[in-house]
Amino acid sequence: MCGIVGYIGHRRALPLLLNGLRRLEYRGYDSAGIAVPHGGGLFIAKRAGTVAHLAAMLEHLNLPATMGIGHTRWATHGEPIDRNAHPHTDATGRIAIVHNGIIENHAILKAKLLEDGYGFVSDTDTEVLAVFIGALYQQYGDLELAVRTALSEVEGTFGLVVLSADHPDLLIAARRGSPIVIGVGDGEYIVASDATAIVEYTRSVFYLSDDEMAVITRAGCQTKTIEDIPTSAQLLELEFDLERIEKGGFPHFMLKEIYEQPTTFRDACRGRLLLQEGNVKLGGLRSVEEQLRQARRLIFTACGTSWHAALVGEYWIEQLARLPVEVEYASEFRYRNPVLYPDDIVIAISQSGETADTLAAVREAKLRGATVLGIVNVVGSSIARETDAGVYIHAGPEIGVASTKAFTSQLAVLMLLALYLGRMRHLSPTDAREIAQELARIPEKLQYVLDTTAELTREIAHLYAHAQNFLYLGRGVNFPIALEGALKMKEISYIHAEGYPAAEMKHGPIALIDENMPVVVIVPRDELYEKVLSNMEEIRARRGKIIAIVTEGDVAAARLATHVIPIPETLPLLTPILSVVPLQLLAYYTAVERGCNVDMPRNLAKSVTVE
Ligand code: M6R
Predict the structure, then answer these.
(1) Which residues form the catalytic set?
(2) Each residue of 564-581: b (16+ CB within 10 Å) or e?
(3) Which of 8, 83, 280, 312 is least enclosed, having the fewest CB within 10 Å?
(4) Range(s) for CATH 3.40.50.10490 in the chain?
């Protein structure tokens, strides 16, 4: 949530900062701003709206500064208007900061500063911190000490960068709960809230840990705790390249990412499927193998799309490993005083690895002594670092706010986990081999689904783009896909959509059905197929419009449906991996048809790092 970029080096800072903000805009896009040293003071530009608005305001400028900071915002404290945009300054206007996170004790700090005669121009918690740092700087005459002292008194979370007109060769970055990654180039450093702003300049990076800060000059970078104890930075090589964060000819990141799924699914399984042995190798779980063998219960915790992936995982693991699984919203888990036993394993699922609720659930579970694992996309993210062990999904950067490829890659890893746990228990090598072999065929089936359903879903989207509501129904392992289809539809097209287990329809939602209600029914040929056909009959009798996701060649389901979207045959357990794709496309084309900003849906941001 919110993007931060900072630069110090030999290049002109302004174009680099704006470029970084464009790359980070998926993290927040309601206002943007920059600050650079200029003429002995600071030049600050900020405004409500997108980075493009800010860039248009600055395009005629050719400022010589070779350092600066920038921010793209998703509002928490204070509405998205010019004066609430970052950077914020201290009372002298000579110190500027950009900040992600929330200063929870901002009201107390502000009251004290007001008593001391300081004034404020914004409604933000960040300005309170800027003014506080400035006040301490007046007292100590030492910027680093002022920042450290301020941060030790702050409650809440921060990822921040500080710049001062008095120190044109110094940037100070710090982190607690909100990621900061620092790219190391030749005589230059790029500080950012994620690596997408860095990768085109350098691949060499390190991440700050919580309560760690970096004091950066052109000559070098020192890291230390905010208590001033030196730390050592561990350099890593970024694994993705620029191509992965550009649209590559697609009109939107979301569509590009939907089309990447055959590749990303293959990448998630790469080197992990032991086809001959009918088994799975998950190197990241080696250290907890014994705990997994002894486990009596798994608890998945996640939010949004990742929570839907967990629901599919629940079916798979219970089916293949006969191990009880619970799925908890992370936001509920953390506050419900959860009952955990020593042989429980908690598994957090998160694309970003930074979702505040999921991270808090990880911490809660660890406090209660559980073994905590992560299924995460972003390498080096907070959840990846704070869990005892885990599995990366290797989907590459996901920029579209609506999660697509991360979901199918999470499913890939969850099925691998189900096979792994199954083989530790009662699953026979023959049964595991059959699933593993079909899993290896999924990428080509995903490609087939993309090739055969894109045009069809676009036509259906055209017909129903005016709808006020959508209902999504599925059963068994496809019930979570109904939830996911509905989430995709509402988050990018703003059409109200609900997902239900198909049989639940008659307990209430059926009242909504009339000739204006499009009902998406996921009805592959599996053990519940006949039951879902009966539900379709019920919808048809009420003149609802049925958009059915069916197994290719299924005439009976086709006869009941208004529109049919066929997916290829696969093992019933694996159908969710294919059935979700037309639902992603349907949401995408509906949003495009309605003129919505697909990659930047209103009120949302890519990773929700606040509670
Ligand atoms: O990064 P995470 O997987 O932890 O994010 C969880 C949710 O915020 C996320 O899946 C959200 O629901 C997506 N926008 C859905 O498309």
Answers:
(1) 2, 606
(2) bbbbbebebbbbbbbbbb
(3) 83
(4) 247-427, 451-599
- Ligand 1 in contact with 306 (CB < 6 A)? yes
pLDDT at 377: 95
Question: Which residue from 438, 400, 435 is spatially nearest to 260, judged by alpha carbons?
Answer: 400
Q: What is the position in ligand 1's atom list of the atom closest to the CA of 606?
A: 14
Task: Tell me the whole-structure pTM to 2 decimals.
Answer: 0.86
Ligand 1 site, residue 350, Cβ cutoff 6 A? yes
pLDDT, one tens digit per residue, over 154-164 is: 999 999 999 99
Residue 604's contacts (CB-CB under 8 Å, 6 or more residues apart) are: 401, 491
Indicate whether 242 pLDDT > 80: no
Residues comprising the chain, all counted:
611
Structure tokens at 394: 């290797």
372 alpha carbon to ligand 1 midpoint, in Å?
20
pLDDT for res 29: 80
Output the CA 149–ligand 1 centroid distance in Å.
35
Residue ranges in 206-355 assigned as alpha helix (H): 253-259, 261-269, 289-294, 304-321, 330-333
Residue 378 CA, closest ligand 1 atom number: 1
Q: Which atom of ligand 1 is closest in space to residue 608's alpha carbon?
A: 8
In angstroms, what is the span from residue 478 Cα to ligand 1's centroid? 19
379 C-alpha to center of ligand 1: Å? 16
Q: Is 373 exposed, middle or buried (0-12, 13-18, 19+ CB in 10 A)?
A: buried
Confidence tier at 605 by pLDDT (50, 70, 90): confident
Record: fold of 2-238: Glutamine Phosphoribosylpyrophosphate, subunit 1, domain 1 (3.60.20)
Task: For strands 344-350 and 325-329, give the pairing.
Answer: unpaired
Instruction: Determine the average pLDDT of the residues in 518-537.
Output: 94
Averaged confidence pLDDT in the chain: 94
352 in ligand 1 pocket by Cβ < 6 Å? yes
- Using the atom order of ligand 1, give the atom closest to the CA of residue 302: 4
What's the CA-to-centroid distance between 403 and ligand 1, angstroms?
Answer: 6
With a 6 Å cutoff on the Cβ, whether 607 touches ligand 1 is yes
Q: Domain spanning 451-599: which CATH class is it, in words?
A: alpha beta
Q: What is the CATH number of domain 247-427?
A: 3.40.50.10490
Q: Express each pLDDT in 44-102 by its tens digit.
A: 999 998 899 999 999 888 899 999 999 998 877 778 888 999 999 999 999 999 999 88
